[in-house]
Amino acid sequence: MQHTSPEFVPTPASGEASSPIDNPIDNQERYSRQILFPGIGAAGQARLAEAHVCIVGCGATGAASAALLARAGVGTLTLIDRDFVEPSNLQRQILFDEADALQALPKAEAARRKIAQFNSGIEVRAYVTDLVPGNIAGLTGTSHLILDATDNFETRYLINDFAVQQARPWIYAAAIGAYAATMNILPLPASASDARWEPTSCLACLFSKPPSGPVETCDTSGILSTAVNLAASIQVTEALKFLTGQSALMRRTLLSFDLWTSERSEIATAKPRKGCAVCDHREFSHLSGESRPHITLCGRNSVQIHEHHRPVDFAAMRDRLAPHGRVRFNDLLLRFEREPHTLTLFADGRAIIQGTTDVTVARSLYARFIGS
Ligand SMILES: [Zn+2]
C-alpha cells in the first residue's frame, strides 16, 4: 500500500517492526478469552482481524480506544493526531510514558510504538497531522469505521459531513470533568439496495451547528481519567458490535453519564431527522471547508497555525533559530523555546505556539521566526 502523505510515519525496519509472520504469540491463545465470549466467538474474531478502524485524535480517549481495539485484535488501525505528548497528559493518556513526554513525541507515533510492544500482529498507521477537508478522504482511506476522539467540534462536524457523504459509520465520544458522552452514527446508505444497517440520526440531526462561544475543555474544566476510559469502553464495545456484523445491537441514543454524580441521560437517535441539512439535504459545508479558520485556539494556552503548507528542513531551521532561544528537534518536530513562548513546528510547516491565546501574537511569532 502506498502512503503519499508526507506526515505518514513509516514503520521502521528495526526489531520493533510489526510482522504477523514473525509474531511468536499464537492468536488462538492470545484471543481465547474474547473468543469464549458468545458475542464474539471464532467467527467474530476472524472478522476483527480483517477490520480497519480509523481513530481521529490520539489524546486521552483516542489512546484508550486504540489500546482496546489493538488488544481486541482489530487488524488495521489508522491513528491521526496533530499533537505531541506533554507531562500533563500522563494522568489519563494510557499509551504514553514519561520518556514520550520528555521527548515531546507526537502522540500518533508514540501510540504506534507502544501498541507494537503488546500486539505486533496488527498493522498500525500513524499520521502526525491535523485532519482537514483536504486530507480526510486520503487519511481515513479504506477504513470500515471512524472513531471520534477529537477535542473539538470543528473536526467532529467535518467527520460527520464526510461520514454521511461516504455512508461510513462513525462513533462520537467525548469526556470532560467526570462526564462521558457517546453516540453511534450509522448514516443513510448511498442507495436503498446498499442498506447494510438501519440508519440513525447524524450529529447535525441533533445539533444543527457546532456550539458557539467558549466550550469547556479539559484544560479549563479538568478531567478524570475514569471518565475518559468509560467513554472509550463504550465506544469500543459499540465498534466491536459493528465490526462483527451486529449493527442491529448498537445503541441508538446519545448517552451521557456523570461518574461523579451517577446521573445518566439519553437522547433518542433512532432515525435520521427530516430536514437535516447534512443527512437529508446533503449539504456538506464543513467538508467543503467553508469558513474554516487556519488559525485555531487549541486549549492549554496555545494557538495552532496551519495556513502554511511547506516542507521544513529542521537542521537549517535549528541553525537559524539557535541565536534566539533553545532549539531541540527530532525526525518529527522541532521545539523552539523563547520565554514566555514555546513554538513547536511539524514537518509540514504546521505550528503550535504555547504561551498565548492571542492569535495576533502567535501569527507574529510565526512570521518572525519561521517565515510568513
Ligand atoms: Zn442528519
From TrEMBL:
Q: What Gene3D superfamilies does UniProt report for this protein, alphabetically?
A: NAD(P)-binding Rossmann-like Domain (3.40.50.720)
Whether Ubl conjugation counts among this entry's keywords is no
Residues annotated as domain THIF-type NAD/FAD binding fold: 31-277
GO MF annotation list: nucleotidyltransferase activity; sulfotransferase activity; thiosulfate-cyanide sulfurtransferase activity; ubiquitin-like modifier activating enzyme activity
Among the entry's GO cellular component annotations, what is one?
A: cytosol
List the InterPro entries.
ThiF/MoeB/HesA, ThiF_NAD_FAD-bd, Ubiquitin-activating_enz
The UniProt keywords, alphabetically, are: Nucleotidyltransferase, Transferase
Q: Please, which domain of life does this record's source organism belong to?
A: Bacteria
Per the record's keyword annotation, is Transferase included, yes or no?
yes
Q: Where is the region Disordered? A: 1-25
Q: Please give the PANTHER family that the UniProt record associates with this protein.
A: ADENYLYLTRANSFERASE AND SULFURTRANSFERASE MOCS3, UBIQUITIN-ACTIVATING ENZYME E1
**Family, as annotated:** Belongs to the HesA/MoeB/ThiF family.
The protein's name is Adenylyltransferase/sulfurtransferase
Q: Which organism is it from?
A: Edaphobacter modestus
